[in-house]
Specification:
With about 260 residues, this protein is an alpha/beta fold. The strands form 3 sheets. It has a 6-stranded mixed β-sheet, sandwiched between helices. The N terminus is likely disordered.
């Protein structure tokens, strides 16, 4: 008997629906028959809230955030300092728990997972690119890239890793230590590491914050190219409007609320 999978689709601006199908069978849906584009929602929040303190000291860092990000999208989340964008990234990445609401990654409500299960899910399904690179100083470039895969006890897909390394122009740096790399090269290693485990989504937190303008453009260009090539979804936090314009869509957040772009419009 063939096994089946569950796929979540978004038809137009309507609600997502579930479809069961056999992997060997061509998928046919009403949306296809009507000639509409089918978009799969890979990341979603529902009435997401994060409060700190209480009474007069209550801070509503996130106050009822609803957003959807489709598979393969490159989305920028922008806002002023204190707008809630970093808190939102922490919620999306399972780095903190919400006060209320849901965060669904690849159809899984990560806000309902216990800490150990959340850590495993985060390692397997979410790739991170941070402003400070967060490379292990005693490991070389290749070892840093495959480290999360080995940490999970999985076999490294060398052909896939080699393809990432080549795309990011790191072929001649695989044996170098982080201290022997420029800032731009270190960030490329961080991007490769985020891609290596084939996550459901990559979250980038001010990935060009420590880079000069020219290097920032180069790194973001490579991030976009690799995302397209390896069919990855990216949500990027940035305060830089010029950098934000490189994304497919911009989501604006202020005072813990989505002002524009959360629903794809």
């Amino acid at each position: 008997m063939n096994s089946f999978k569950t796929v979540r689709f978004q038809k137009g601006a309507g609600k997502p629906f579930l479809l069961y199908y056999f992997p060997e069978t061509r998928i046919e849906t009403d949306a296809e028959l009507e000639g509409e584009v089918i978009n799969m929602v890979i990341l979603e929040t529902k009435n997401l809230k994060k409060y700190y303190g209480e009474g007069e000291s209550l801070v509503k860092a996130l106050d009822g955030v609803d957003l959807q990000i489709e598979q393969g999208e490159f989305v920028s989340i922008v806002g002023t300092s204190g707008s809630g964008k970093s808190t939102l990234l922490h919620m999306l990445g399972g780095l903190d728990y919400p006060s209320e609401g849901q965060v669904l990654v690849d159809g899984k409500d990560i806000s309902a997972l216990k800490e150990d299960a959340l850590a495993i899910f985060r390692r397997r399904k979410i790739g991170f690119v941070f402003q400070s690179y967060n490379l292990v100083p005693v490991l070389n470039v290749y070892e840093n890239i495959v480290f999360p895969i080995q940490l999970d006890g999985n076999e490294v897909d060398r052909k896939y890793i080699d393809s990432i390394v080549k795309t990011l122009g790191l072929e001649n740096k695989v044996n170098a230590l982080p201290s022997q790399l420029s800032g731009g090269q270190q960030q490329r290693v961080a991007i490769a590491r985020a891609l290596a485990a084939k996550p459901a989504i990559i979250l980038a937190d001010e990935p060009t914050g420590n880079l000069d303008t020219g290097t920032s453009q180069d790194v973001l260009g490579l991030l976009k190219v690799t995302a397209r090539k390896f069919e990855q979804t990216i949500a990027m936090i940035t305060h830089n409007e010029e950098i934000a314009q490189m994304a497919d869509r911009i989501i604006r957040i202020e005072d813990g609320k989505i002002l524009k772009g959360g629903d794809g419009r």
